[in-house]
Amino acid sequence: MRGFSLIELLVVLAIIAILASISYPLYTNTIRKSHRSGAKTALMTAANTLERFRIIQGTYAGANLNTLGVGNPPHYQLNLHIIGSENYLLSATPIGPQAQDIHCGQLSLGQNGQKQISGTGPLLECW
């Protein structure tokens, strides 16, 4: 006899299903981490641009992401909150599929370099 029996095919399908059920969550977690890395890079770039703005203007007042030329990274929405004339808070809010990242949630970066998250995970894992 040539070929495979039905039982052999079912065993192979079961093994493939088990491997897929293990690998898919790992894959999606890796994708979330890479998107988060892009958001962190965008926050740091925006912070550097804000510091240059302050050196030139002497204040953060009047700065916004459009005039600074800072765009949104994929899967995140950047926000800038100027607090008085001497402080700011940059935040990156996950959007689309990235919004399911409850481990880290929203990433924030303050004027003094303080980093915050809105998620349930440890700060060091998210930043």
SSE order and pairing:
Elements: H1 6-57, H2 65-68, E1 76-83, E2 87-94, E3 107-110, E4 115-117, H3 123-126
Antiparallel strand pairs: 1-2, 2-3, 3-4
Describe this structure in words.
With 127 residues, the protein is an alpha+beta fold. It has one domain. 47% of the residues lie in helices and 18% in strands. The chain contains three helices and four strands; from the N terminus they run H-H-E-E-E-E-H. Strands 1-2-3-4 form a four-stranded antiparallel beta sheet, covered by helices on one side. The radius of gyration is 22 Å and the shape is rod-shaped.
Beta-strand residue fraction? 15-25%
Tally of DSSP β-strands: 4
Largest sheet: 4 strands, antiparallel
Strand order of the largest sheet: 1-2-3-4
What distance separates the N and C termini? 60 Å
Share of residues in helices: 40-55%
**Low-pLDDT segments:** none
Total of domains: 1
The shape is: rod-shaped
Supply the number of helical segments: 3
The run of helices and strands is HHEEEEH
Secondary-structure class: alpha+beta
